[in-house]
Every structure is written in C-alpha cells, then in structure tokens.
Amino acid sequence: MNQGNLVKADRRIQTVDLVYVAIGAALIAVCSWISIPTVVPFTLQTFAVFFILSLLGGKRGTFAVLLYILLGVVGLPVFAGFSGGIGALLRPSGGYIIGFLAMGLIYRAFIRIDAPKLWLEITALVVGLLACYAFGTAWFMYVYIRDSGAVGLVTVLGWCVFPFIIPDLVKMGLALAVAKRVRPALR
Questions:
Q1: Alpha carbons 54 and 48: distance in angstroms, whole number
Q2: What CATH number belongs to 3-186?
Q3: pLDDT tens digits, 106-144
Q4: Domain residue ranges of the chain, discontinuous segments joined by +
C-alpha cells in the first residue's frame, strides 16, 4: 500500500470515529430528554453513557460524553428538561453531568483492549459510577449550601444517590447486554 492510500485509510478511520462520537453524543442527549423530574431528575442518561462506553470503547466513548457536555455548554438543549447552557451545569445537579466525563475517563483507564472481560468492564463502570456520584454529590452540596443553607451529607445522599443506585445498576446491565449484541455490527 502506498503512502497516499495509507493517508486515505487513516482519514477514513478518523471520519468513522467522529461519526461514532457524534452519534454517541446524540444518543446521550436523546436519553437525557426521557426523564422524571425530581431534585436530581431520573433520566436514561446513565444508560446511554454506559452503553456508549461499552459499545465504542473508552476513547471514543469518552469523547462522545465530552461532546455531549460541550453541546450543552454552548446552549443546545441536550440536558434533562431540554435545558442547555453553562447555567445548567452550575445548578445543583450539574456535577452529575460532569461526573459522566469522570466515568468515561475511568472506563478508559481500566479498559485498554477491544473485547474486555465482562468482569473488568463491570468493575470499570461501577468505579466510574461511584466517581460520578462522588463528584455530583460534592457539587450538589456546594451549590445547595451556598444557595439554601446547611444540609447534611446523608440527606443529600438520600436525595441524590440512594434512590438511583438500583436503577443505575439495572441500566448498566441493560446497556452491557445491548452493547454486546450491537458490537459485532460495528466491526
């Protein structure tokens, strides 16, 4: 293969990567619109993040999450409740959105191969989810205390984490199962 063909092949791979990243970000946005409003809304965002990371891998999946966040920051209504703009991230629940990026980075650190073992993938997603909870809860407390006054950690965990644990684990299982079925079609 001559150098011209190598450059074309490299561009094609990059173009495919960009398409996957864009589709991943779009899927996260669509899943964020499916929500039940609460203090921190119940959405399908976490399902989409789990699915995209498992399907696309750590690098492309993390870039999809980053693109999703950047689209929201510039004002596109990609967050829960069709909201967007930097103000959405500055609200009490905005830390959980940033936590999705931590989830992607952790997944990428754990998963360095195309077909990871299921136990390693589950471990990476659970550790990433814990990081998302930690970052989101810390941000929620900071904003809530600044705007409304003192609140205890257990109270915030009761609002923002405990009700989400089982649904998030179910979403993780579903995302892994669907990604496993879809993954062969991407190759």
A1: 10
A2: 1.10.1760.20
A3: 999 999 876 679 999 999 999 999 999 999 999 999 999
A4: 3-186
**Beta pairing, strands 35-36 & 42-43:** antiparallel
Collect all residues with Cβ–Cβ distance below 8 Å to 141 and sequence separation of at least 6: 151, 153, 156
- The secondary element (H helix, E strand) that includes residue 158 is helix 153-160
**Residues whose CB is less than 8 angstroms from the CB of residue 87 and which lie 6 or more positions away in sequence, other chains included:** none
Q: Which residues pair with 83 in a beta bridge?
A: 79
Element containing residue 35 per DSSP (H, E): strand 35-36
CA distance 64 to 168: 19
CB atoms within 10 A of CB 95: 25
- Total-model pTM: 0.90
pLDDT tens digits along 54-105 = 999 999 999 999 999 999 999 999 999 899 999 999 999 999 999 999 999 9
Q: With beta carbons less than 8 A apart as the criterion, state whether 66 and 105 touch.
A: no
